[in-house]
Amino acid sequence: MSTSLPEISGSRSPEGKKKNLVNSKFQPTSQARFGYLGHLCLQNSQDDPAQALRNITALDAPSFLPNVMTLQRASTPWQYNTPCRSLEGPLPTESSQTLGDESPSKGSQILKSTSRQTFNSGNAPMPANYVRRIRRKAQLSRSGNDHRQQIADLKMLADSASRSGNVYQALQAYHKMGVVFDNQGMYDEAIQKYKQFLALCITSTNTQGEALAYNCLGIDCFKMGQYDEAIQYHNKHLELADGTGRLIAHTNLGIVFQAMGLSEHAAIHHQHAIEYANRMGSKDAQCFTVGNLGIASAAQGDLQTSRICLQYHLSSAQRQKSAVGDSKFAQHTLKEVSKNAYHRLGQVNATDGRFDEAVDHFAKAMEVAKSEGNQKDEEVSLAMLGIARGMLSFDEHCAALVKHAEEAAIDADEVRA
What's the CA gap between 2 and 300, in Å, rounded? Predict the structure, then answer.
């Protein structure tokens, strides 16, 4: 999370100025939030406020899952104390046009079932970041309450805060209600709460909250099949966001355009997302942004670029295996990523006439699906493996049939002669 840097107040002596340089650069809330860890970050950077800010930001650095075609959520400010949000799952990408042709209700049901079936936030491992880990524990401690009771409590809190003129408390309550509705798949209700949250953020000139509201509205409008509205909200998020937020906005815009069948527009936004991932130096962000570009390139017919991007995505995800740990969630995520990457590489190579490489990738996809007990994906990969093997020897088979027919014709002529 970025921290505002106020002007340095004047001091009576150079020694006093040097002593108070760091403390004047950060709000008391920043120092309290990061505690002794924040003190350690500032200890060796007294003469370089920019370096101190980078150290503080590193404590709150975002982390991303390696899944491609996954809607990205903007990070919520710490002080909002929101409920634990269900993780977004990868969208079904067997055919990018299929998503665009779905009706809004059916499309939202597919996205809802995919997200809930594959990624449950309760099964996710605790973050390695200390501050995020403490926050996750606090969120999980309150996640057992019934959502209707949570909504009722938050409505009462929002009404009382509005009556007392506490806009900041009211907008937080509306955002929390939107998150609760999101977790229940009630996207219409969530959109209404996010719009109220947005209106209060605009009124109070809360730019950070306004960017967060645009991100939430864009994702929920996409899930409801309202692609034009989703593009508008993500573009507004892009205008207000910082580097990380722009990466998220470009990724979401690319996914929306991909669902609309506009692969060229999607590829442009995924390229911008890669640029911001490179600026951040984030390996996990580079992993999924390059994979997204590979999918968009395949839809455009640029098979060479698609193959290079998907291979990088696969190798990058496998390199992260040691970093994510040995939890069941991490193992399941990496297996899903590897299986999908192998299958997509098989499809790209088969389309490009590289049937020997396609056979190898479909076989690996089938092995991964079998290891995780996914019979449906195993059967799909097995069928594609059979097709690729058939196409690999199809020319030889045709040549053998032609040769056999020619020999049979010669023998027949000899018999008649």
Answer: 37
